[in-house]
Amino acid sequence: MNLIAWNCQGLGQPQTVRALSELIRKERPSIVFLFETRLEDCRMEKLRKILGFNSSYYVNPIGSAGGLGLWWRHEVEIQILGSCRNFIDSFVLYPKDGLQFRGSWFYGPPEIGRRRDFWESLKGMDWKDGTPWLYIGDFNDFLWHHEKEGGAPSNPNRQRLLLQFMEDNALWDLGFKGQKFTWRRIRYGEVYVQERLDRVLVNNDWLLHWPESRVNHEIHMGSDHCPLSLHLSPKQVLGPRPFSFESYWIDDDECHQIIKFGWQKMVPGGPAVNWVAKLDQCCKDLKTRSKTKYGNKKEQLLTLSRRLEEIQGNIVQPEYLIEAEAISKSIDDLWKIEE
C-alpha cells in the first residue's frame, strides 16, 4: 500500500501535471494528498478522473492561495472527520485486508502569525484508543537546525510548535530516504535557502502495525517542494507491464503501415484464431519498432531521474543548478512524448 503527499504549488502548469501523472504511474498509490492546489474542485475533479482515482474530497483555495485535495481508489474507504483550509482529518479503511488508520493530511499555515492558533486548535485530537495514526504533509516548519540551510539565520528562541505537538501526542518522525531537504528557494540562479518542511509523523500504534513503513523524498519537478511517497510495507515485485497503445504512435506513418500490413497478412485457422494471431503480431511489431525508433524511454527516464536526484541532494554550485534545469527539461520532454 502506497500513499503520496505533495505541495504541488498549483496544478495549473502542464509540467506539474505531467510530474504528478508520472509519479502516480510509478508509485501506484491508493491515496494521493495534494495541497496548495490553487484550483477549484470542479477543475480538480477533471484531473482526478484522468489520473484514475474513484473518490475525492476538497477544501477550495481562498482566492489563488491554498487548496487541498484528497483522492483515493476503489480499494479504499475514507470517512472525512473534519477539515479546514490547513488540514483534512479522516478515517481510512482497506476492507480487503481489514486494515484501518486515522489519517490527518496537513498543510501548515505559511503565515507565522497564524501558527500558534492553528496548533492550539489541534489539541485534544488524539483518540488514545489504540488506533494507528498518520500525520503527513507540509508542516511549514522544521524541527532542528540541521534541517535548514541558507537564508536568514533561524531564531534560537523561536516557538517550537511542531515539536511541542509531537511531544504532546507521542508522535515519531518516520525519517526519509533521498535528498535531505524537501523545499528550496532559488534566487539569482543559486539555491538561496532550503529546508525540510514536509514529513510523515506516526504514533506508537502505527509502528506496531507497520514497522517497515518508509518515506521517500522524490525528485523536484514542477514545484519547489519534493513529493513524499509513503510505503506501508516493502514494495511488491510486479509482473511485466501489459501492452498499451502509445498515443504518439498515431502521428507515426510507419506505425500505421505496421498495423495495415499486420491485418492484411494471411494466418491459418478460424476467424477467432486468425484475429488473435494478427493482434498479437501487431503488438509485438509495434513495440519492437517503437523501441528501435524512440529508444527505451523508461531507461532514459530512470537514468535522468537518478542523476537529478543526485544533483538535488548535493546542490552547492550554480553549474549544478544549470545541469538540474537541463535534466528537468529533458525529463519533461520525454513525458510529453508519452502524453
Question: Key features?
Answer:
16 strands, 9 helices, 339 residues, alpha+beta, Deoxyribonuclease I, Chain A, seven-stranded mixed beta sheet
Q: Rg to the nearest angstrom?
A: 23 Å
CATH architecture of the largest domain: 4-Layer Sandwich
The unreliable regions are none
What series of H and E elements makes up the topology? EHEHEEEEEHEEHEEEEEHEEHHHH
Number of domains: 3
Write out the strand line-up for the largest beta sheet, numbering strands in chain order. Answer: 3-4-2-1-16-15-11
- Shape assignment: globular
Main sheet: strands, sense, barrel = 7 strands, mixed
Assigned CATH superfamily of the largest domain: Endonuclease/exonuclease/phosphatase
Written overview of the protein:
- By secondary structure, this protein is an alpha+beta fold.
- It has three domains: 2-231, Deoxyribonuclease I, Chain A (4-Layer Sandwich), CATH 3.60.10; 247-294, no CATH class; 297-338.
- Helices cover 36% and strands 24% of the residues.
- It contains nine helices and 16 strands.
- A seven-stranded mixed sheet has the order 3-4-2-1-16-15-11, covered by helices on one side. Strands 5-6-7-8-14-10 form a six-stranded mixed sheet. The protein has a three-stranded antiparallel sheet with strand order 9-13-12, with no helix packed on it.
- A hairpin with a 2-residue loop joins strand 12 (183-187) and strand 13.
- Helix 6 packs antiparallel against helix 7 (271-294) and helix 8 (297-312) packs antiparallel against helix 9.
- The chain starts with a strand and ends with a helix.
- The model has no long low-confidence stretch (mean pLDDT 85).
